[in-house]
Amino acid sequence: MKLSRAACAIPLALIIVACTPNASSPPAADPGAPAPLSAEGDFGATLQAALISARPGDTIQMPEGTFSLIDSLSLDVEGVTLRGAGEGKTVLDFAQQAGAGEGLLVTSDGVTLTGFTVRDTKGDGIKSKGADRIIYRFVTVEWTGEPEETNGAYGVYPVESKDVLVENVTVRGASDAGIYVGQSSNIIVRNSVVEYNVAGIEIENSSGADVYGNIARNNTGGILVFDLPDLPVSGGNSTRIFSNQILANNTRNFAAAGNIVAGVPSGTGVIIMANRNVHVFDNTFENNRSTGVLITAYSLPFTDAAYNPLPRDIVVRANKYTGGGDDPQGILEPLADAMGGTLPPVVWDGVTSWPGAEPQAVNLTISEAPEVGFLNFGVPSYPLDPAAIAPSTDRPVGTPPAEPAPIVLAHVQE
Amino acid sequence: MRFAALLLAGVLSACGLGKAGGPDMSVILAEQPAKTLSDYRLFADASASQPALGVTAYDLVNPLFSDHAAKHRFVFVPGSEKAVYDGEDVFAFPVGTVLVKTFAFAPDMRAPGEGAYKVETRLLIHKQAGWAAYAYVWNAEGTEAEYAPIGARREVSTIDPAGRPLTINYAVPNQNQCKTCHQAGAVIAPIGPKARNLNHHGQLEDWLARGLLDQLPAGAPAAAQVFDVSLPLEARARAWLDINCAHCHKPDGSASNSGLVLSSTETDPVKVGIGKRPVAAGRGAGTLFQVIVPGAPDRSILAYRMASVEPGVAMPELGRSVHDPEGLALIREWIGKMESR
Known about the structure:
Oligomer: heterodimer
Strand order of the largest sheet of chain B: 1-2-3-4-5-6
Number of helices of chain B: 9
Helix content of chain B: 10-25%
Number of helices of chain A: 3
Order of helices and strands of chain B: HHEEEEEEEEHEEHHHHHH
């Protein structure tokens, strides 16, 4: 897909203003804020020195400007706020990066990142690992140019963390997920914009997440909730995806082949895979060419005895769907061809068992307006056996599980 | 133990040993790192080749590959204290211990002693509050090394041990990068001084005799020398991964979230990577699907990332700017001869 960034820029800005309900400007720097770091000389060295010598609770203020960085940055001091002059004003440009896996790595608790842009990192944009109570706020991570396989994997990447807040963040161009929260718990991702990534937002092997008020557009897939085997933390559960705008996620899949998201069919709004207690409601889906919501089992062989590859206790209700389903891609294309070439807004693979396991009740509730179509591919289990497929348009009638309580982050003042 | 070390520091200072005869305990145990390497008095000479009294040179069965740098290691354990033996993990060293590693190059690494010059010296110091890691970068004259919390880069031109000309953009790690590799859960810890890495040419016996080690049980484990072709391939390959990868790829290491565990003691084949799919590798996986495909090194992400020098793809992420051709050949041979499952 050829998309000119210049051609998109102006309408994009208008859309953000018009459609992001809770977006507001970052608060002006408070009068007691420290003086910004010097922009003179080797800014990478200046900034890394400040990140190392910071005392717990310090604020590091970055000046306005675009700074070319050779080495990655890291922060390992608790409670530090790293603040820039604003997205697009303080730009950390990693196009010349010579080492390490990400632009900025945070490994301490209670850190706030706000008001800056990270651009063109070789690996991930910003990673926070084992960093509880992290806040990403008014931060942009982007890979400029066309969506490409050589872009970094994740834009905003909290992993193995408790109490994660990602808000008013913008990520574009990630070759895996724009906002990826992995192996974490108690998570809010809200009021953010993700575009031209393979996956817009991905919640993986995590428990307790609220994903709302976001715009996921022009990704390959909009919002993904996955659970994968053979990881230290699995058994992902209890995620609510609501009041998001999930629009035209029709970018070609440009992920590296071996990554799990390489299997995401272009044009998919939401995918729920092998996760438990996921509620998708009050979202707006528009023009996602494969389908709106895809509910699927993990389809590959695995050895992890504790792993359940089925989606269970899933509720899809009260979403609004416009267009889409008219040109299914990837794995969905041949399946759709067998059904006449198009797909309805809600699709389930139908899998209820896996090799060596008895069939299980997966308990799906599809509670949409009567005119919203549904398709069960009727795949009994993976690996796929075309002869065993028995499609159906009957909506499953489940017992809706109690909706998880809203996520509360004690470290965030509402 | 803390009181003992404090007392020791006091005694050493009081009787002057700390100033003249050996390492300066007040500098070693200070909350902040010293400005220069010589402040610690770990060496008798300015060029840090003659260890001071109580400082002992040692080596490892297999070193971590660091852009072909020669490494010179020393250990200092204060007073009459000893490291506590452990059969699997790093020895428990007392407070006040200093592990010293100097990285050096020569114009031709086939003769690493000729015209050698030091680039950096890293210290791991067991402070009261735990281990701390500091890098010191040498001046051009090789007469003093200065604390470098944010690291440094140095252009190095040399000929590698196999005779290949090499230009390296050598990276001295910053203080946080030290922690990335030395992370063990919430704290940092040494990596090398484990029984299996020290156990060759009578070194453990020597440590015992010098009073560095509290005991040496019979049958201490020994890592296979990775390039000794008389030893089993499996043991050599696992030993290479153990010393080059497992400091991050362990359950409480920096790469824990990958689920890939490369310690030589790991027994679950999937955790070691056999048939394991990438998780967060991104483009690091290239076009490949599994970490290790038995019999197929060209289809194995492990070998692909070892061969790369590209940031975001290359593994290890830190500590090298060129790849280790001998290590790569070993791992490729191991994967190639692995039976399909």
